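call fold(seq) -> tokens
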Amino acid sequence: MSDQFFERPILNSPYEYPAQHWELDRDGLPTNQILPQRRRAEFITPIPKPKKRRQGHVQRELILFGTDGLSTEAQQYDPTSIINSIREQVAAWRQLPNPDSWRVTPETARLLQHWRHDSFQAIRPFFCQVEAVETAIWLAEVAPNLGKVGKSFLDHIDNANEAANPELLRVALKLATGAGKTTVMAMLIAWQTVNAVRHPQSKRFTRGFLIVTPGITIRDRLRVLQPNDPDSYYASRELVPNDMLGDIDRAKIKIVNYHAFKLRERMEVSKVGRLLLQGRGEELQTLETEGQMLQR
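ret:
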């Protein structure tokens, strides 16, 4: 058996669209055949359960079939991700030669041209980084203007969020370890901030950002997202044209560790003191409310 796959596992430039890939069999083993297109995303996604049930809702939910028996009454799975469809839409939009056809603001068009074509003296953004930001831009600025096609994607995202966590709209961008997620965050902040500063009446853009980290070490590393940091990515990595750096200075960025959201005690009470204050009544509530936590 030939070892072509192991001799040359990398086929594509990190700066270009991945135009080919090694074929894998059903067991995930290489067949040593190169296919002349991008590898499709294949995910089996858990369907989140609704946080709240409507009163009177007693209908038993249908269990999905055709997923190799993965779905059960306790957990359903969706094997038909929309990721590939969105990728195709973004790829077609990316190929439009005229910026006037991109359906984005002039500021967004300028940033896209900068990230795609600028001769960077520092580190040039990888294709996966640019594509991640392009996807966010496409969903926010382009899809709402595409009629039924765009609405179908936005409705899918809205419905998924409503089922998973109502009133908190979330969109996830997945990148491999080491792909440079901090750079992507800086690019997203730049896109939103520049537009928010130059289009203050628009509700699509903001210059306020809350970044929640999984640990103190990562929180400290992300200081490069602050415009006034000596190693700020916006300038040191040339992520923003020079004439837009002044707009970035108006961003309000708060970087906190996730522990900051833990409800704190409003009063220090010993176990014995708590029992005395509580007496035979209801349990004594001394934790701050969610509203008080947010104000803090």
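The chain has eleven helices and six strands.
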